[in-house]
Amino acid sequence: MCLKYVLDLVDRLDDTRNFIVAPGCDMPYAVPVENGIAVAQAVLQPASVREMLFNYTAVEEAVPVALPDYARLPRPLVEVFTLDSATCAACTYMMGAADVAKAHFGDAIDVVEYKYTQKENIARCKAMGVKNLPCIYLNGQLRFSSLIPNRDELQRAIEALL
């Protein structure tokens, strides 16, 4: 729930004088307007929102997800975790870097994108310990987080696995 998330975020800060809550490309397309209003309400009226949430308990939806057996992969696996490469500029660039690597290595590597807009991929991010999007994992290990690797960096990292 976005109300609780924003309040928890504000509570972790020592000083909120220069704090700005602003959606970026991490706000998926077609988010209900009510979510944006709720975020503003949590920032502008935290006391009343705390009252509303006093007895709130989040319901965790258990979405089963099977992670690959990284020790037994037939070829290097490039996993690109994005919000959605079709709608997020940084995610587009990260996925583009992986696509260039795939074009270079061909069938010698596997590339998959996990979009955070799907429930199973949210569960996958939790299981993998993904902290920032976009990012690239190679054979289950975080290699590039938030910063898009250039062609040579990514190719060298993949070559080390071949």
Strand content: 5-15%
Question: Any idea what the CATH architecture of the largest domain is?
Answer: 3-Layer(aba) Sandwich
Coarse structural class: alpha+beta
> Mind telling me the CATH class of the largest domain?
Alpha Beta
* Integer count of domains: 2
- The order of strands across the largest sheet is 2-1-3-4
Q: What is the straight-line distance between the termini?
A: 43 Å
Gyration radius, in Å? 19 Å
CATH topology of the largest domain: Glutaredoxin
Principal-axes shape call: elongated
Helix content: 40-55%
CATH superfamily of the largest domain: Glutaredoxin
Strands, count:
4
Q: Please tell me the overall pLDDT.
A: 90
Written description of the protein model:
With about 160 residues, the chain is an alpha+beta fold. The protein folds into two domains: about 1-50, no CATH class; about 70-160, Glutaredoxin. It contains six helices and four strands; from the N terminus they run H-H-H-E-H-E-H-E-E-H. Strands 2-1-3-4 form a four-stranded mixed β-sheet, with helices on both faces.
Key descriptive features of the protein:
162 residues; alpha+beta; Glutaredoxin; 2 domains; 4-stranded mixed sheet; 6 helices; 4 strands; elongated
